[in-house]
Amino acid sequence: MADGNDGGLTRRGMLKAGVVAAALAPAAAAVVPAGTAALRDQLLLAPDILYFNAANIAPTFRSVIDVQEKELRAFQANPSREYREKYPVAADRLRARLGKRLGVTAEEIALLRNCSEANTVAVLGLDLKPGDEVIVTEHNHQSTLDSWKLRAKRDGLVLKILPTPVSATSPQAVADDFARAATPRTKAIFLSHITNVTGLLYPVAAIAEVARKHGAWLHVDGAQTFGWMQLDLPALGVDSYGGSTHKWMMGPLEAGLLYVRRDRQDRLNPTMLSHGYWLTDTRNLETAQRYEILGQRDDPKLEAIEATLVRLDALGERWIETETRARGSEMRHILAAVPGAKIVGSGDPALSGPILTVAFPGQDVTALRARLWKDHKLATAQASAQGAALIRFSPHIYNSRTEMEQVAALLVRS
């Protein structure tokens, strides 16, 4: 990148970046078995909490908190432009690191504030005209679903909301629903990679074929896959993809990314343009950096995200996916044996992951969940499908079988 006259890269900035990278390296931890006390002890999570809500927020590592707090103090002690020269370097390094994890280039990654923001950029940035059709699903995250409802009303678009199959039978059957809904007027398809309601894992690659056939834009909300699933975005065939750091990635709050395929970026407009605090060359506005020009940012968070990736790399992407799937499968088996509990959704590994929703027919599920938190500090989430209230469990690598059996015992007694 070229040096800039205003906040550009300098030799001093690059040297500082090297020092930061070296400082982060010792944070890497030896691989420890999933669900062990040793792994949980690396988190700041209170020992009395039975935490099964990674689909909402996952606790982060003590080392990440230390890095973020230390850098925040350093920033506030010296918020000079000269000190902040290192942050564009950190942002470049982070885009490259995230791109490598996703099988894409740094030029296709924008650093945003969460997945909802990424979704909204995709919703608002496409050029559409009255009568154009957009396909979404019933269980899209509200940041996508409500934004599309608002835009459809404002711009005269036709919004098709597909029912989310609660008991899907095969990936192809799910993809066929999109094929039947698509028409020559379909211009965009938006869905969640895994729904946060019933945990359905959509067959994105097959749906991408439907989108390509109709020349439609495919955006996937990856909030429930980014961080635990190994992702190859070109293989999935998406045009854009969003993710957050505070869920399965176990990183800091209020950070995320938007991937936009390089040859499709001219079709997606940025929703805001301001001073580019991390922009070192105006030519980078020809890349996905155009979507992150949002004004002053939380610069110290860049180092917290990188510290998180250091931890995850020490564990290994393949290991994390294997163990996360194992935690989900193990808990599904345990909960299925609880009298009166009914697992909702598919148990097929091709259609499911670590998000489990459970119905308790005949019980007041809202009261049950509240009681489990108040009396036993069991942290879950509430969901609803087909008119039934559900409790959502989302185990992660820090959850042990002992904890899962504790949950089952509490459900039996409640």
Automatic annotation (TrEMBL):
It comes from the Bacteria. The keyword Transferase applies. Residues 51-405 form the Aminotransferase class V domain. Gene3D superfamilies: Aspartate Aminotransferase, domain 1, Type I PLP-dependent aspartate aminotransferase-like (Major domain). InterPro entries: Aminotrans_V_dom (IPR000192), PyrdxlP-dep_Trfase (IPR015424), PyrdxlP-dep_Trfase_major (IPR015421), PyrdxlP-dep_Trfase_small (IPR015422), TAT_signal (IPR006311). Pfam families: Aminotran_5. Keywords: Aminotransferase, Pyridoxal phosphate, Transferase. PROSITE patterns: TAT. GO terms for molecular function: transaminase activity. This is Aminotransferase class V-fold PLP-dependent enzyme. It comes from Sphingomonas natans.
